[in-house]
């Protein structure tokens, strides 16, 4: 199959027998969390899944519509910072998988407060609940951004120091350090995943891939930060979700695991060009805008530790982007209401075109 880059990995069906039987998935109505929930519930004899989600601007029950009637699924609307609620729900499960977070770097620069609250205090609230109920597992979904800017040709390995440089990545680093401290101090069987920049269906259109795709479909500008040369390690969402399941089933307590696509490091201009090609739009849609303050120039992961557990990505960037752009083309019903609402106000606050910067072509 085109774009398939590695075939020898544990399938989710193989992993299911090793997963805890009752999962509390915090933040399961967001982009990656909902992919993980759908993946689990598609399996024969899946674990029972309770989703706890506040339904912020980024949470959306439409992401879980496919599983809404599944007998092993239930949804609870609530805040992970609510200690009493976290405690009650933790008492009904064996394990917490924590996706819940404020997740967008640009919003963290405009307004860090919610990031400290949810990502730092909220993680503490879940850890305390898991500790009290002696959970058999706690998985914290973290990010490659905790390593900070990584110079060429270095690849980050799990033992590297954490050098976060944005309010978002600092809040995520704080969260995962608490998790690892709960392992060292209380013996809570915590595992951490550090995923790279993820894209695919159901991603809120503030992140580069869905933003550029929906802008291009509407013949609107694609706002490239700075010179468009910042590099990311783009990972398709189903590969990321399967990586999380792999670490949940097989990871060693007290360890972190990088989950990166590997091999292909893609800059902002390449994302823009790929979207324009797949949507058949002209290069004149590219618009240079002011750079992100403190913009990390490069993230790049060495994911061999996760590979040793039997994980590897299935799709390369071109294959993942084809699926993604086709999905956004089909699912205007999902993204049009989002872009006309709260998002429009964020866009006005965040983007400042650079006067005189010419679009290529
Ligand atoms: P997202 O913004 O799409 O989803 C976050 C979800 O958390 C939403 O459903 C939101 O309603 C919920 N939430 C927020 N605050 C909450 C609170 N206080 N209580 C309960 N629920 C709350 O994010 P995503 O892109 O799916 O990311 C999921 C996780 O993966 C995050 O922890 C993020 O840091 C991490 N991550 C994301 C990427 C990426 O590229 N998107 C890569 C690596 C790691
Ligand atoms: O690397 C993992 C991280 O990836 C996750 O932890 C975060 O939750 C997720 O938001 C993502 O962070 P990034 O900042 O890398 O993603 P974003 O899509 O915002 O930006 C990707 C690159 O594209 C970055 O170099 C900035 C650039 N960019 C982004 C936007 C939104 C642009 O040039 N223009 C844009 O409009």
Describe, in plain words, how this protein is organized in 3D.
This protein has 361 residues and is of the alpha/beta class. The chain has a domain at 12-196 and 236-259 and 295-314: NAD(P)-binding Rossmann-like Domain (Rossmann fold, 3-Layer(aba) Sandwich). 39% of the residues lie in helices and 15% in strands. The chain has helices at residues 12-15, 31-41, 83-90, 105-110, 113-132, 167-186, 208-217, 237-250, 268-279, 304-308, 317-330, 332-340, 342-350, and strands spanning 22-26, 48-53, 73-77, 95-98, 137-143, 190-195, 198-199, 222-225, 231-232, 235-236, 255-259, 266-267, 286-289. The strands form 4 sheets. Strands 3-2-1-4-5-6-11 form a 7-stranded parallel β-sheet, sandwiched between helices. Strands 7-10 form a two-stranded parallel sheet. Strands 8-13 form a two-stranded parallel sheet. Helix 2 links the parallel strand 1 and strand 2 (48-53). Helix 7 (208-217) crosses helix 11 (317-330). The chain is globular. The chain starts with 11 loop residues before the first helix and ends in an 11-residue tail after the last helix. The model is unreliable at 1-7 (pLDDT under 50). The protein binds nicotinamide-adenine-dinucleotide and 2'deoxy-thymidine-5'-diphospho-alpha-D-glucose.
